[in-house]
Amino acid sequence: MPRYRLDIEYDGSGYAGWQRQEDQPSVQQAIETAIHGFCGETAVIRGAGRTDAGVHALGQVAHVDFEKQWPGDTVRDAINAHLSMARERIAILAARQVAEDFDARFSALRRHYIYRIVCRRSPLVLEKNRALWSPKPLNAAAMHEAAQRLVGRHDFTTFRSVQCQAASPVRSLDRLDVVAGATEGLIEIHATARSFLHNQIRSFAGTLRLVGEGKWSADDVAAALAARSRKACGPVAAPDGLYFRAVDYPED
User: Fold this and answer.
1) Is 52 considered catalytic here?
2) What is the CATH number of domain 3-98?
3) What CATH code would you report for 112-248?
């Protein structure tokens, strides 16, 4: 059966997350329904990461097996047509045939996320549900300095959900940068790792926000990491500002 890679963008608002669920709308279900509308096949797509409810994607990747071979552009355009008719907030950016052993999840080398914070006095309107609102300015330089205490291979028990199903809390964090965005008041947290724990980046964002507000120091962040206790974590930031940006694969 020919296998295809799908590069996917979506607005996570209104979805219960990536993974198919019985009684709530999901990104996976919407795409699978669109595929059935396109070719009549009951296909199952496998994603590179299971984003939570309200989390967005700029470059989610999934793979799917078809019974018939199609041109990649046909796959992309046909799925998009059915997604559009269903008024889904999802788009297939690219579709191409790949090797049969390609696996969107297990072939991935690194995953990249962005967390966006908009600092301004007025509430968000155009950015509502697409960024975390901070009515007070944040010190991005202090946040970046503190973030470097988290880079490397650590036990991230403090920064993972109590519902996390990962066998081990140990992960290698390749990058955690806090930078000023392209527009005034925008702060972006860039995170890169082979894999992340459940709620890990949102836990980072909520903790680093305390640093930006001057309530915590870099030493406080290091102490929270060393505590290996969920109670030591700062507030978990809302899903609105989190974006699954990209995935790296060997063939890329």
Assistant:
1) yes
2) 3.30.70.580
3) 3.30.70.660
CA 91 vs. chain centroid, Å, equals 16
Q: What angle do CA 104, 106, 107 make, to 5 degrees?
A: 70
**Contact call for residues 232 and 144 (beta carbons, < 8 A):** no
In the chain, ranges of CATH 3.30.70.580 domains? 3-98
Distance CA 190, CA 184 (A): 18
Domain with CATH 3.30.70.660 in the chain: 112-248
pLDDT at 224: 98
Q: How confident is the model at residue 181 (pLDDT cuts 50, 70, 90)?
A: confident
In contact, 247 and 192? CB cutoff 8 Å: no
Global pTM value? 0.95
For 141, phi and psi rounded to 5 degrees? Answer: -65, -40
Residue 111 contacts residue 195 (beta carbons within 8 Å): yes
Residue among 7, 23, 52, 177 flagged as catalytic: 52
How much is the CA Rg of the chain, to the nearest whole Å? 19
pLDDT tens-digit series, residues 85-126: 999 999 999 999 999 999 999 999 999 999 999 999 999 999
